[in-house]
Specification:
Layout: H1 2-15, H2 33-64, H3 71-86, H4 95-102, H5 108-127, H6 135-156, H7 164-180, H8 183-194, H9 200-217, H10 222-229, H11 238-245, H12 248-251, E1 259-260, H13 265-272, E2 279-283, E3 289-294, H14 295-299, E4 324-325, H15 330-340, E5 344-348, E6 356-361, H16 362-382
Parallel strand pairs: 1-2, 4-5
Antiparallel strand pairs: 2-3, 5-6
Helix pairs in contact: 2-5, 2-7, 2-9, 3-5, 4-6, 5-6, 6-7, 7-8, 7-9, 8-9
Length: 383
């Protein structure tokens, strides 16, 4: 609160009391108009969810391009520059253009085109390494979406005297809310911009609906998805974040004690007497994973000697094997282990789920977690 108050005082001292984004006075024409704001919230929720997906698809595409790191901002700037030749409205933070949208001065076709083009240009800019943020682009996308929706409604209901700028205003807050999963921030933002109590109900409806739709399709927001990709879950505790930061490939053992699927129970009894493990992956003649057997599976027939040389281990094994990939994190692996209360998971190749590349146990994961926790604790003490 102190930091926010001081920042406001300093910015007003330097820039004056005028807000950078000038919003017209808000007016609700009829209570029936609230139904249109509900529909606007639904549309914006879908668009915000699509924007999150688009943003990270473009990020993955740019990351996959094998170019020197410093050349990617050059390429990103070139692409955005080419887009801006035809649509210069995408440049900058867009506050001046948003003000004209709030005044209802922009054509419908332009606003519809900018919904997609601005989203693509923003994603290219940020993911190629150029500086920028998400706050202004979210407001921009909300303004053009709401403005286009308002113009369409004004054409469909010419006698209702609807103000497209009002929908652009509410769209700004709703898109910011849906993309960042922060409805309260957006509600207060719109109220402070307009200083109008009439905007509260429309913006609450649009923000809540938009955020709910976006959360349904994307659990993470624009702000948290990048952190989750790096193994940081703000809603989880320190323990889960440590587990998410470690990959199976870093912890797994490549020395796997495999059992041929045609091994007899008698041979298997001698085999388990010489090992400390309790679960063993089965492989066929080509070395492909075909099942998994545990000591518990064997104990049911150990007291029937006549079966020892007649039955092979595959007849007692579990064919539906729970596996994990080397690039998955330990949190995922631990959840899979807990699903059937087993001690080990076969690690398989992502392209070929029958190719065994290692094995990971509950003990391996706990040991890795303890090592990282100890290292972090000692690092904090040194600091």
């Amino acid at each position: 609160m102190i930091a926010s108050g001081m920042a406001t005082v300093v910015s007003r001292a330097l820039l004056g009391n005028e807000a950078e984004l000038a919003a017209p006075a808000y007016l609700l024409q009829s209570p029936w108009e609230l139904l249109l704001y509900l529909l606007l919230g639904l549309i914006i929720g879908l668009l915000a969810s699509g924007f999150i997906d688009l943003h990270f698809r473009i990020k993955d595409l740019i990351d996959s391009i094998r170019l020197p790191k410093l050349s990617k901002p050059v390429l990103g700037g070139l692409l955005v520059g080419l887009i801006g030749i035809g649509l210069p409205q995408i440049y900058g933070n867009g506050y001046e253009f948003m003000s004209s949208v709030l005044e209802g001065q922009q054509p419908l076709i332009l606003l519809l085109v900018l919904i997609l083009v601005k989203a693509v240009a923003t994603s290219i800019t940020l993911n190629s390494g150029l500086p920028g943020g998400m706050f202004a682009p979210c407001l921009y996308l909300g303004a053009v979406t709401g403005g286009a929706f308002g113009l369409l409604c004004a054409q469909l209901f010419p006698g209702a005297d609807l103000a497209p700028g009002a929908y652009a205003l509410v769209g700004m807050g709703a898109f910011l809310s849906a993309a960042t999963h922060a409805p309260m921030t957006s509600i207060f933002l719109l109220f402070e911009i307009t200083d109008s109590y009439e905007v509260i109900i429309p913006i609450m409806l649009a923000c809540v609906i938009g955020t709910s739709i976006a959360r349904h399709f994307n659990k993470e927001s624009l702000e948290t998805a990048e952190l989750v990709r790096d193994g940081i879950d703000l809603e989880a505790g320190k323990e889960r974040n440590i587990m998410k930061a470690l990959q199976v490939g870093e912890v797994m053992s490549k020395d796997v004690e495999k059992v041929p699927e045609n091994m007899t129970l008698g041979q298997f009894a001698k085999f388990i007497a010489s090992t400390r493990h309790t679960n063993f992956p089965l492989v066929d003649r080509k070395g492909a994973l075909s099942g998994i057997i545990s000591v518990q599976d064997f104990m049911g027939v150990v007291f029937e000697p006549e079966l020892m040389d007649l039955v092979v281990v595959k007849e007692l094994a579990t064919i539906d094997v729970i596996t994990v990939h080397a690039d998955e994190n330990l949190d995922t692996a631990m959840r899979k282990i807990g699903y059937r209360n087993i001690e080990q998971l076969p690690v398989v190749d992502r392209a070929n789920h029958h190719k065994l590349v290692g094995i990971i146990s509950r003990r391996d994961m706990v040991s890795a977690y303890n090592r990282v926790l100890m290292a972090r604790t000692l690092g904090d003490e040194d600091d």
